[in-house]
Amino acid sequence: MLPMTDATAARRAPHDRRRGLMLVLSSPSGAGKTTLSRRLLSQDDDITLSVSVTTRPMRPGEVDGVDYHFIDRPSFDRMVAEEALLEHATVFENSYGTPRAAVEATLADGRDVLFDIDWQGTQQLADRARDDLVTVFILPPSIAELERRLTTRAQDSAEVVAKRMAKAADEMSHYAEYDYVLVNEDVDRTLADLEAILRAERLRRRRRLGLSGFVNAMREGAGR
Ligand SMILES: Nc1nc2c(ncn2[C@@H]2O[C@H](COP(=O)(O)OP(=O)(O)O)[C@@H](O)[C@H]2O)c(=O)[nH]1
Ligand SMILES: Nc1ncnc2c1ncn2[C@@H]1O[C@H](COP(=O)(O)OP(=O)(O)O)[C@@H](O)[C@H]1O
């Protein structure tokens, strides 16, 4: 178990001190993970995005170091060899991975980490840290709407969109491996559900490091 740093411990009331959690969002491409992640991150200071490394080419509008760390194949292979990745997988012929150091530093600070990763990466994280993990699968409201979203995002060629659609059925078959499943019809509604999940998971007793000291102090006070 990772300890919290003094900075975070001092910021929280004793009963609010807790371990950071790892919130995973997965979905078929185009269902809305990126949109939901950006909105959640912009309104909640206690959660930060795990920025993955990838060998995929950058899309228009993406920023290196913000959306992904865009790296070449030798650099990716080196990170795997050095065990610098917490998990990694091949998706659509490109490699993706989660840098370990940033995640460990954020959790040690008692803050939460958001992951936009696929089912393969989720399984690897579950093998390593099931107790710290909260997993959410996002489904589109229909296949027609998924295709519409992939097409109107206008960032991929028709060929790439076709490949992503072909993979969607496969990806969706993994929904039952997740703790929560959200159908992303209306984005405001889905975001509200995601916030509710995060809020409740933060309140879980096993994550609340300060609780026993808090209760013990009250019990001592009551017995006086
Ligand atoms: N296992 C794993 N999957 C990742 C990682 N980063 C991104 N992915 C997944 O790779 C897939 C393709 O991502 P991307 O090329 O950005 O397209 P997107 O589906 O439109 O977000 C998505 O399912 C992501 O969740 C990672 O670090 N590890
Ligand atoms: N609930 C929604 N309703 C309509 N359009 C959406 C919704 N959620 C996301 N979108 C749009 O669908 C496209 C794909 O969303 P994105 O967040 O990039 O998906 P993913 O990261 O899962 O591939 C984007 O153009 C986005 O603006």
Write the layout of secondary structure elements.
Layout: H1 6-11, E1 22-26, H2 33-43, E2 47-49, E3 53-54, E4 69-70, H3 73-81, E5 85-91, E6 94-99, H4 100-108, E7 112-116, H5 119-129, E8 133-139, H6 143-152, H7 158-172, E9 180-183, H8 187-202, H9 211-223
Parallel strand pairs: 1-7, 1-8, 2-7, 3-4, 8-9
Antiparallel strand pairs: 3-6, 5-6
Helix pairs in contact: 2-8, 6-7
The structure holds guanosine-5'-diphosphate (GDP) and adenosine-5'-diphosphate.
Enzyme class: transferase
GO cellular component, one term: cytosol
Binding site for ATP: 27-34
> How many individual domains?
1
Number of H/I helices: 9
Task: Give the CATH H-level superfamily.
Answer: P-loop containing nucleotide triphosphate hydrolases
Sheet having the most strands = 5 strands, parallel
Roughly how much helix do the residues carry, as a percent range? 40-55%
User: What's the shape?
Assistant: globular
The number of E-state strands comes to 9
Task: Give the terminus-to-terminus CA distance.
Answer: 34 Å
Structural class: alpha/beta
Summary, kept brief:
The chain has helices spanning 6-11, 33-43, 73-81, 100-108, 119-129, 143-152, 158-172, 187-202, 211-223; strands spanning 22-26, 47-49, 53-54, 69-70, 85-91, 94-99, 112-116, 133-139, 180-183.
Structure characterization notes:
The protein is α/β, with parallel strands linked by helices and 224 residues long. 45% of the residues lie in helices and 18% in strands. The chain contains nine helices and nine strands. It has helices at residues 6-11, 33-43, 73-81, 100-108, 119-129, 143-152, 158-172, 187-202, 211-223; strands at residues 22-26, 47-49, 53-54, 69-70, 85-91, 94-99, 112-116, 133-139, 180-183. A hairpin with a 2-residue loop joins strand 5 (85-91) and strand 6 (94-99). Helix 2 (33-43) crosses helix 8 and helix 6 (143-152) runs antiparallel to helix 7. The mean pLDDT is 92. Bound molecules: guanosine-5'-diphosphate (GDP) and adenosine-5'-diphosphate.
